[in-house]
Request: fold
Amino acid sequence: MAASNRHRIASGVAIFAVILVSLFLFQLLHHRSAFDDLDRHRGGWPAAIAIVLGSAIIHELLHVIVWRRPLRLTWSGMGFGAQMNPSMSITAHRVSLALPLLLLALAPIVAALLINNGLLLLWGLFFLLECFSDITLLFALR
Ligand SMILES: [Zn+2]
Reply:
């Protein structure tokens, strides 16, 4: 399962489109920018770093939940990532790749739009960026 540059470009375009559309929808629904809520963020850089680290760990755990095998983290050029199980079915791979995207990115983005929370939207969009390689692989698995 090799991802080509075409898959990477498709992933980047999809992420960029979701970012633009959700920021536009937030503005349209709530008559202000999601970035206006940045002042409401508590805890400064330590809290932001804790959220980034926590989300990365939860992201990888969501992948391995589907695999039902012990977590094996490996270092790659992009940072650490959970290792795939080559004996797994394509469907299980797809579910494993899609779980962090659905639960950590798309769910907070939709919730943020509904409950008028710009900070949640910005974090959801950041978590979406963390899904770049997963979305690339999902395109490659089509
Ligand atoms: Zn991932």
